């Protein structure tokens, strides 16, 4: 009797969480899985077309360009972020005057809205009257305006902005990992005459290994997924140079007049693209996981 | 010959400022740290000071500090650019979302940690999977259609419900805090005749306060900074826009070029409240992120 009551009570308490997750979390996934086999524009009849959407996807050069862009974007972001954050974490893990203050500064971008900062970065980077060009010209570093958001530099600019937003988070994750390494390991190493550089390569990196792997995995997933900043800053432009996978998916569902060649909302096709993108992210995550496992075994 | 080698290296080390622990290394280290800090702070400083400049000074001046402090930027943005409305909407959205998330997540976390029932493992697995599977903006469409059916698409309640439904992360945070609360207390209360709900309300929730605090901080920030869902849900109802959405509309508005100072004043309104809380409680902010998915 008591047990039955406990189960009843449990279900009652779980109900709000369960129903919300089911209706707003799981059902939309099912919706997408259904409509990716349909030709459905959001109005009129939804027509079953089997795997047509996926055939179309294979021929959709705009999408595959956005996939390549995503890899460039994520790769660029990771190549700068991971070493930078590791360096900052190692430095700030030592006894250093003002280290808490510095940590607090580096972490600041993490708490600010990326959409809001994208507006600010637009004001900073826009070529015509952007603040950065004003400064650079005032101090005679450049003589002509640099088109930071133009076709040539837009990707680099978005990568730098992404790094700006990510530094604090990954620094902190690395710090958490570093704090788990017991201090006496370093003490005995320095007694044995190992210098700081040797300690870093032969102690810190191997002992940080598991954390490093998880953090890099998180970073990969996050950089493949992120598109909010780009959406506000460049809308994927100019001429699709900063279009990333999930931004393309967004545009198929919520096209805006300025969103380029995607003019018609296409829910069926959009679902197929969204699903494929999730699979791509999953495959990359899996590949990375396998690779890091193999590296582990080699050691 | 051997004895000569040692004094030689010693002398060399004393001369080289870039040897380990030398002043050269320290200087380089600090240049690196301060340069990084400067780059991180630059956009924030631009936002803060720029919001007091005139539009002309912002777009041509190349100054860091405003020559004249235009406090009226804020008053004008507040009234003319409708930021009073946006701020209120943001506050209401974030406040209700935070309360709702904490209630839903703490109830679920309580029974998952303290009770036994069939389907528990499945429930936890579903919660975990919702944190990692992402098909992007696709899900917003069915969510929107659902809200139309519930007649919630013309208010912020639809967005609030959707944001509360994403409570998996808070659920896991609270679960880890619950594991640290001794079970002896609820056993004692049970023997005294306290009901399950009574134990949750009178014993668990007060002891869970640190966890709820971290969860509240996290949820509030997330909702305050949320962009996509308020954007999509307020496409036909501009009076419901939040700060993030209202601001991004300024960026694409026809008069964007003459409204740079409003944009920065609006950006200030959006980031300042969080920055102020952050200055008071940055330790708690950092605590919650070790394990977060943002970035």
TrEMBL record, chain A:
Q: Name one Pfam family in it.
A: BPD_transp_1
Q: Which CDD domains does this UniProt record tie to the protein? A: TM_PBP2 (cd06261)
Record-annotated membrane-spanning stretches: 12-33, 71-92, 104-125, 154-178, 199-221, 267-291
Q: Which GO terms describe its biological process?
A: transmembrane transport
Which part of the chain is the ABC transmembrane type-1 domain? 67-288
**Which chain positions lie within coiled-coil regions?**
none
UniProt KW Transport keyword = yes
Keywords carried by this UniProt record: Cell membrane, Membrane, Transmembrane, Transmembrane helix, Transport
- Where is the protein situated, by its record's location annotation? Cell membrane
What is this entry's stated membrane topology?
Multi-pass membrane protein
List, alphabetically, the PROSITE patterns matched. ABC_TM1 (PS50928)
| A cellular component annotation (GO) from this entry | plasma membrane
Q: What InterPro entries does this protein map onto?
A: ABC_transporter_permease, MetI-like, MetI-like_sf
Q: Which family does it belong to?
A: Belongs to the binding-protein-dependent transport system permease family.
What's the protein here called?
Raffinose/stachyose/melibiose transport system permease protein
Q: Which organism is it from?
A: Paenibacillus endophyticus
State the organism's lineage.
Bacteria, Bacillati, Bacillota, Bacilli, Bacillales
TrEMBL record, chain B:
Keywords attached to this Swiss-Prot or TrEMBL record, sorted alphabetically, are: Cell membrane, Membrane, Transmembrane, Transmembrane helix, Transport
Q: Where in the cell is it found?
A: Cell membrane
Instruction: Please indicate if the UniProt record lists Transmembrane as a keyword.
Output: yes
Q: What SUPFAM superfamilies has UniProt attached to this entry? A: MetI-like (SSF161098)
Which CDD domains does the entry link to? Answer: TM_PBP2
Q: What InterPro entries does the record tag this protein with?
A: MetI-like, MetI-like_sf
Please provide, in alphabetical order, the Gene Ontology terms of the cellular component aspect for this entry.
Answer: plasma membrane
List the transmembrane segments. Answer: 27-49, 91-112, 121-144, 156-178, 199-225, 262-281
Identify the residues that the record assigns to the ABC transmembrane type-1 domain, covering every copy: 87-281
| Major site of localization recorded for this protein | membrane
Which biological process terms from the Gene Ontology are attached to this UniProt entry?
transmembrane transport
The protein's matches in Gene3D superfamilies, at most eight in alphabetical order, are given as: MetI-like
Topology in the membrane?
Answer: Multi-pass membrane protein
Protein family according to the UniProt entry: Belongs to the binding-protein-dependent transport system permease family.
**Know the name of this protein?**
ABC-type glycerol-3-phosphate transport system permease component
């Amino acid at each position: 009797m008591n047990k039955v009551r406990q189960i009843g009570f449990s279900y009652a308490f779980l109900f709000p969480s369960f129903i919300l997750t089911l209706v707003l979390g799981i059902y939309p996934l099912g919706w997408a899985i259904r409509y990716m086999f349909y030709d459905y524009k959001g109005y009129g009849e939804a027509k079953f077309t089997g795997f047509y959407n996926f055939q179309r996807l294979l021929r959709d050069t705009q999408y595959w360009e956005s996939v390549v862009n995503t890899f460039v974007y994520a790769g660029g972001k990771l190549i700068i972020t991971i070493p930078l954050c590791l360096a900052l974490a190692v430095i700030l893990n030592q006894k250093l005057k003002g280290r808490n203050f510095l940590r607090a500064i580096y972490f600041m971008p993490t708490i600010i809205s990326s959409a809001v900062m994208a507006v600010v970065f637009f004001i900073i980077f826009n070529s015509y009257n952007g603040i950065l060009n004003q400064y650079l010209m005032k101090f005679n570093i450049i003589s002509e305006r640099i088109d930071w958001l133009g076709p040539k530099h837009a990707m680099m600019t978005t990568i730098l902005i992404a790094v700006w937003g990510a530094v604090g988070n990954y620094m902190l994750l690395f710090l958490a990992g570093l704090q788990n390494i017991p201090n006496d390991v370093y003490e005995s190493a320095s007694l044995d005459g190992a210098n700081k550089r040797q300690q870093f390569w032969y102690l810190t990196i191997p002992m940080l290994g598991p954390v490093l792997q998880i953090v890099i995995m998180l970073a990969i997933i996050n950089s493949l997924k992120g598109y909010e900043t780009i959406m506000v800053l460049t809308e994927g432009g100019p001429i699709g140079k900063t279009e990333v996978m999930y931004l393309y998916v967004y545009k198929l569902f919520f096209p805006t007049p300025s969103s380029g060649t995607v003019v018609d909302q296409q829910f069926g096709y959009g679902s197929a693209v969204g699903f494929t993108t999730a699979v791509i992210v999953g495959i990359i995550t899996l590949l990375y996981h396998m690779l890091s496992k193999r590296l582990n075994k080699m050691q | 010959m051997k004895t000569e080698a040692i004094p030689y290296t010693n002398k060399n080390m004393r001369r080289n400022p870039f040897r380990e622990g030398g002043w050269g290394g320290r200087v380089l280290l600090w240049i690196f740290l301060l340069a990084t800090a400067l780059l991180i702070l630059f956009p924030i400083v631009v936002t803060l000071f720029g919001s007091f400049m005139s539009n002309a000074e912002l777009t041509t001046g190349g100054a860091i500090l405003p020559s004249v402090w235009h406090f009226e930027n804020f008053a004008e943005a507040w009234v003319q650019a409708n930021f009073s409305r946006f701020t209120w909407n943001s506050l209401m959205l974030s406040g209700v979302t935070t309360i709702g998330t904490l209630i839903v997540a703490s109830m679920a976390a309580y029974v998952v940690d303290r009770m036994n029932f069939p389907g528990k493992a499945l429930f936890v697995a579903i919660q975990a999977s919702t944190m990692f599977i992402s098909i992007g903006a696709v899900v917003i469409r069915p969510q929107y259609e659902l809200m139309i059916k519930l007649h919630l698409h013309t208010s912020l309640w639809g967005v609030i419900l959707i944001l509360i439904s994403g409570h998996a992360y808070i659920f896991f945070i609270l679960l880890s805090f619950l594991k640290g609360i001794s079970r002896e207390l609820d056993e004692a209360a049970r023997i005294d005749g306290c009901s399950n709900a009574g134990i949750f309300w009178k014993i668990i929730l007060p002891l869970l306060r640190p966890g709820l605090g971290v969860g509240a901080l996290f949820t509030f920030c997330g909702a305050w900074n949320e962009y996509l869902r308020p954007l999509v849900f307020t496409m036909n109802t501009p009076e419901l826009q939040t700060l993030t959405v209202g601001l991004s509309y300024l960026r694409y508005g026809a008069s964007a070029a003459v409204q740079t100072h409003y944009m920065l004043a609006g950006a200030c309104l959006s980031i300042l409240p969080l920055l102020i809380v952050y200055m008071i409680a940055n330790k708690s902010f950092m605590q919650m992120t070790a394990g977060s998915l943002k970035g």
